[in-house]
Design goal:
VPS10-sortilin, Sortilin_N, mainly beta, four-stranded antiparallel β-sheet, repeat, single chain, five-stranded antiparallel β-sheet, Sortilin_C, VPS10 domain-containing receptor SorCS3
Length: 298
Amino acid sequence: VEGINGMYLANKIVDNHIKTFITYNKGQTWALLPAPTTNVAGNNLHCILPFCSLHLHLEMSENPYTSGPITSKKSVPGIIVATGNTGMELSSTNLGMFITSDAGNSWRQIFDEEYNIWFLDNGGALLAVLHATTPLRQLWISLDEGKKWDRHSFSLAPLYVDGVLMEPESDNHIITFFGHFSHRSEWQLIKIDYKGLFSRRCMDGDYQTWYLHNKGELCVMGEKQIYMKRRPGNRCMLAQDYSRIYSSEPCLCTAYDFECDYGWERQADGICSPAFWFNPNSATKSCSFSQSFLNSTG
């Protein structure tokens, strides 16, 4: 996952079922993804861990002009948009689009079909275009991390959309659709300036802090990190040079940060206990009569 150190998503075969797992510590521990509580229509999903979870298609896009099944961006830490499904395993049917705004701790469903989704305005806005083999004339834009979507027409005639061009981290707010009106027509380019979505530049009061965490645990990869991001729904343009990481400080070490001593093994409760072949009472160093030695506690 781009933008957050040590965070990865992986699909794993468990009892002949493909399931999606997440890690925040470079693979030391893995967990299933919690499913959204409701679907797009607002109906309860009743998908409870560990029997039911969210599963994502993790293929990267081979076409540089489409977003592919999953996308994240370094300039938008904590936000991931992906194609997937809820249930016992990963499926190629009943697919929808899902988003997380808090680095995978919770997820929301935003569409019940497959869409290509791009980050606009340095990640301050989202652009969605239906992933379809039929011609299109509409796009969707969200300024509040996918909670609300506004529909816009980008072409008078339906266009077979082959891709979208945008200048990465550019300040000109222009995107270009390319495709063709029919299978026999020439290439078409449609330029869109979306600057009109915003009324002004963002000020200090338009930003909020966000704490990176793993199910409430603020220490991730040995650090407590606080990020800055625009308040969802504020119609202001992000400053080109605003810093994503607001502060970062190392955490105090706990017993979990250390390995067990030689001959000791970590148990499920985190305690180090002697291995079956190891006798902790035997002298670990040469010890003469009437002398003493310090032994390990694990």
